[in-house]
Amino acid sequence: MVFLSCEAVRWVDDEPWPGLVEVRFTDAHQQQWAFIDKWPVFTDGDDLAPDAHYPVEVVILCDILTSEDTANTSDTVKISVSPWGLESLEDESSSKCGLIN
What we know:
single chain
């Protein structure tokens, strides 16, 4: 399993239970990606709550994709956040989230 470090930036809502948070990261092209899902998707601790001091470091489970445009670059990879079925707020239904360092 591969985890991408991200930041939970805000508590979105108490419903559906156990509550929703917004998580963001910036890729190698400086594009910001945002996701909203139940907080246990991003952490196994209890550090996310409505009254937490945001931002909070969290992780997203991801897959590393192989493609020709990244095959010759050793320090960037293309990822997919499909293991948890996340879709970005930027409407990327494929969940392919660009290149990360």
